Amino acid sequence: MNAIPKKRKKSLNSRTSSAGSGDLDKDKLPKHVAIIMDGNGRWAKKHLLSRIKGHEKGSDAVRAIVRACREIGIAYLTLYAFSTENWQRPRSEVNALMTLLVKFLKSEQKELAENDIRLQVIGQMERLPAKVQQALRETMNLTRSNSALQLNLALSYGGRAELIRMARKIAQKSKSGEIDPDAIDGDIVAEHLYTKGIPDPDLLIRTSGEMRISNFLLWQVAYSEIYVTPTYWPDFGKDEFLDIIIAYQRRKRRFGRAS
Ligand code: IPE
Ligand code: IPE
Ligand code: MG
């Protein structure tokens, strides 16, 4: 799909000028980056550890990437943390993921609040355990006036479930006369998704080498630039993230038009 740039050894400063070739161009940043954080289990297996240890290590990578986004000035970061299909994993793994999420929120709340980062959730929040919902609500409330970076956590998220929910909402409004069926267009569809008000992702990254979407943001990724890296999520860090953004900046986006 795309070649992975060689490891860069330059300092951040030399990479963040707005002119230099091979450096990050601050004027051409993707506004919205979405990430399918995959490979925790395989990372754990490789290190002879339990899958749960892989998820624990994965939460360190989340912290690093959130910080990096805030530092370079990305406006929206959406992280696929738990899919509607992930409920079918063994109960012990689901429970561990939920516990880890609460732990993560408690430990990061302060940093998010102080660094002008706003937390939002996309997905079936009502399906999450009460403790998780409570920690999410608390963090969302605490950060709701923040605006430098919006961090969207996709939890019990599925693209198809989101589209079904949208269809039901629009159908109901059509039935009650609030929406004229002939007036339904892309804007009305977008307004009835979890991502209402959020621009579509410019860049979609998937770790662990799998070449699939796995039910993530089906409507929204129509014209996202896709980058797949073989790195397992727990090994993913700021350096590789910056390299991917630089690679993104070299792409020609055409949106179906003639070049
Ligand atoms: C991603 O890692 C985390 C979640 C889906 C919750 P996986 O747990 O899917 O790791 P692999 O794909 O088995 O390596
Ligand atoms: C996608 O990863 C979901 C998340 C990263 C939360 P999965 O590991 O669940 O997807 P598949 O099974 O490889 O498609
Ligand atoms: Mg996986």
Walkthrough of the structure:
By secondary structure, the protein is α/β, with parallel strands linked by helices. The protein has a domain at 32-158 and 200-249: Decaprenyl diphosphate synthase-like (Undecaprenyl pyrophosphate synthetase), CATH 3.40.1180.10. The chain contains eight helices and six strands. A six-stranded parallel beta sheet has the order 3-4-2-1-5-6, sandwiched between helices. Helix 5 links the parallel strand 3 (117-122) and strand 4 (149-157). Helix 2 crosses helix 3 (51-72) and helix 3 runs parallel beside helix 4 (91-114). The radius of gyration is 19 Å and the shape is globular. The model is unreliable at 6-14 (pLDDT under 50). Bound molecules: 3-methylbut-3-enyl trihydrogen diphosphate (2 copies) and magnesium ion. Residues 37-42, 82, 86, 97, 208, 233 line the site of one 3-methylbut-3-enyl trihydrogen diphosphate.
Topology (SSEs and partners):
Layout: H1 12-15, E1 32-36, H2 40-46, H3 51-72, E2 76-83, H4 91-114, E3 117-122, H5 130-143, E4 149-157, H6 159-175, H7 186-191, E5 203-206, E6 225-228, H8 238-249
Parallel strand pairs: 1-2, 1-5, 2-4, 3-4, 5-6
Helix pairs in contact: 2-3, 3-4, 4-5
Q: In the CATH hierarchy, what is the class of the domain at 32-158 and 200-249?
A: Alpha Beta
Secondary structure class reads alpha/beta
CATH topology of the domain at 32-158 and 200-249: Undecaprenyl pyrophosphate synthetase
CATH superfamily of the domain at 32-158 and 200-249: Decaprenyl diphosphate synthase-like
Fraction of residues in H or I helices: 40-55%
User: Count of helices?
Assistant: 8
Q: Give the low-pLDDT segments.
A: 6-14
Q: What separation lies between the terminal Cα atoms?
A: 20 Å
As laid out across the biggest beta sheet, the strand order is 3-4-2-1-5-6
Radius of gyration: 19 Å
Q: SSE order, as H and E?
A: HEHHEHEHEHHEEH
CATH architecture term of the domain at 32-158 and 200-249: 3-Layer(aba) Sandwich
Shape: globular
How many strands, which pairing sense, and closed or not: the largest β-sheet?
6 strands, parallel
